[in-house]
Protein 1
Amino acid sequence: MWIQKEINIKAKKRGFHLITEDILSALPELKQLNIGVLHLFIKHTSASIALNENADPSVRHDLEKHFNVLAPENASYYKHTFEGPDDMPAHIKSTLIGVSQSIPVKSGSLNMGIWQGIYLCEHRDRGSSRTLVLTLNGE
């Protein structure tokens, strides 16, 4: 079975946001699979998708703080600044984290670790809604 859907995640403030439930609610077909793979892809250059800690919100806070140190705003060497001081850092963060994830499926569920969740990583101060492509394959 192959299924592909596009979903929109409403605009979120800058930061790391758990969206596992958004993904699961969009894919009732997941329950039909014994084995498979879910591939996630975000269709944007200033946001990314990650898997990480799903319980303690301080992890999301610390990730945001750390990535702001790795890719600071207003660096004197940036040339791509037309859309504001958060523009080029957003592209750098998206490149570092990545725009896709593949998650195994087992017995009708995502086969992730107990403490893992899916994050939408919003790197713009005023991000827009984000489009994700969900591709589910399995039997």
Note: DSSP finds three helices and eight strands in the chain.
Protein 2
Amino acid sequence: MILVSDGEDHSEGAEAAAEEANKLGIKIITIGVGTPNGGTIPLRRNGVMEGLKRDSNNEVVITKLNSESLTAIAKATKGGYANGANTKEVIDYVKNALNNIEKTEFEATQMADFQSQFQWFLGFAFLLLFADVFLLERKTKWVNRLNLFNEKEK
């Protein structure tokens, strides 16, 4: 699992959840975003900044990177931590981590190979069309316009 976060924990349950994930065999790679000094959260719509994120008291929210929390989560699950400040380093780290994990097959599904049967219906439709156009006494208007049998004189 890849967790992208600033590491701030408002519920005090992150380490317990990480231990539970470890029991289930889930490794967590954490990527820290933000700065230790903190910063505001811009709100954008269609690429245009509309303002800053505010809390219930209408105060601007300041988020700070807590790399210790993210490192603890990663260690608890035998995963790893990467600082998101350098995108290339993060991509290389995640790519390397994914290439080195043990690959297991979760479930195998056998699919039945069905034979297409539309040809029977298509053949029957052509048979009815042939009977309508060539064998029946009355001819449709579009067949008369085609002049298939040179019935109209020029």
Note: The longest strand covers residues 48-52.
